[in-house]
Amino acid sequence: MNNFYINQKVNPKGLKKDEYDVIIIGAGIGGLTCGCYLAKVGLKVLIVEQHYKPGGYCTSFKRKGFTFDAAAHSLGGLREGGPLRKIYNELGLDTKVEIIRFDPTNVVIFPEHKIHIRTDIDATISDLQENFKDEAENIEKFFKFIWNSEFANLYVQLKDKTFKDLLDMYFKNHQLKSILGVFLGNIGLPPSKVSALASAILYREFVIDGGYYPKSGMQAFSDAFIEKFKEWSGNIILGEKVEKIIIKNHKVEGVVIDKDNFIPSKIVVSNCDATNTFFQMVGKEYLPAEFIRKINNLEISPSAFIVYLGLNKNYSKILKDRCGWWCFLSNNFNVEKVFSDLDRKDKPYSEDGFFCFFPSSHDSSLAPPDHEVILLLVPAKITDNNFWLENKHSLAVGLIKKAENFIPDLSNSIAVKEIATPLTLYRYTLNRNGASYGWASTPLQIDMNTMPPVTFIKGLYLVGHWVTQGIGLGGIATVAYCGKNVAKLITKSLKSKSRWK
């Protein structure tokens, strides 16, 4: 256990009645952002996290001198004036964690094409135009529409459309449309199902304005929130699970942790799986039948199968552009098939390609000298727990062999190997079925009224990627933006004076 977290736990039995104005369940980035803004304006805030580290998917772990990021691999929206940059500056995170930016940010690799996504949008457009000369004019129009349009314009034009609809408006070339659909791996849906609006926001805040990385790893980003939260007298309990949210007369009274320790508060914010929040912590007896049916019928995003590798060699002189690689062995790539394959019971994962990331190429402190850290990932689902328990090792070997087509001698360079399945992601986050992005970002489900932050129970708020904001779900910039907005709602409800603009 990292020494940073030792002695961070407070004694629940020593808490005084009405000591906290707000209790936040879950220390994901949404909860941390919300907690920081509330503590900053002088409210007494407690965060309770069931894991021994804060951050949710934005955590890291160490093995034999290597630092591995658990799930999140980079940041977006950090340009000057970007949504995450505003939060970064307003909370003073710049004094706690340094942000690195790498260029190119992503490379899409096919046998016949190699597309670079760069920090300069014009360079990205130029690279795509060089590969698809017949679509040159449309490529520029597509990117400039996403980048230059006001949100209101994006909303009006895209709110009822899928990303496939948007691609079909601009392009005829099937391979180009498949390449542009690759980045939907960061949402977890194919072009035919995913919201065009959510996809446009993803492109703007994570593809075009991507490639940011916190020095020392993703955990350092989450730790920066905790340091600021504590400076503003916030309290955090790590390694304890909230068992119940206590409701009386349809109002929040507080929470119970550790089976019988009641902590009172008139406001509770849940930064965790919505199904768990309402069905377990609140209880179905407090829920309208129609609401129960809605939760049961909502589609969740897929999970992931991840292989973490610590290598005993450094590839800096062998491989160029070690950033985020989207690798495919065939030019006949079908992005729709990648996601339809996840519903197979015998093989609920993608076989057509994989994502590879090289974090230590941007921060050498993540690996011993002359060593390397890489991450291999494919989208996956939980269809059968036994499948993952029985097959994870053979699947890891197969994924490494595929990666060896792009990374020479990879199998012989492995010093450390760790594996995460959807079961692993569930265990550490309690996200239903290990969902990577909360609810699936379909056109119907991103509507603000699907799962709004203000619930029908007085004093109970939701934050994170199980909240619908009308812009899509998932991603660090998106959940941080949600956390800030929920903090504003709570501050307004308590008639406290806000210190942010």
Structure characteristics:
501 residues, FAD/NAD(P)-binding domain, Guanine Nucleotide Dissociation Inhibitor, domain 1, five-stranded parallel sheet, 15 helices, disordered N terminus, disordered C terminus
Question: What would your notes on this structure say?
Answer:
The chain has 501 residues and is α/β, with parallel strands linked by helices. It folds into three domains: 3-98 and 216-298 and 438-493, FAD/NAD(P)-binding domain (3-Layer(bba) Sandwich); 122-208, Guanine Nucleotide Dissociation Inhibitor, domain 1; 302-429. It is 33% helix and 19% strand. Helix 1 links the parallel strand 1 and strand 2. Helix 1 (29-40) packs parallel to helix 9 (218-231). The chain is globular, with a radius of gyration of 22 Å. The model is unreliable at 1-16 and 496-501 (pLDDT under 50).
In brief, what are we looking at here?
With 501 residues, this protein is α/β, with parallel strands linked by helices. It is built from 15 helices and 19 strands. The radius of gyration is 22 Å and the shape is globular.
* CATH architecture descriptor text of the largest domain: 3-Layer(bba) Sandwich
Pick out the low-confidence regions: 1-16, 496-501
Q: Which descriptor suits the 3D outline? A: globular
Helix/sheet category:
alpha/beta
Q: What fraction, in percent, of the residue positions are helical?
A: 25-40%
List the total number of helices: 15
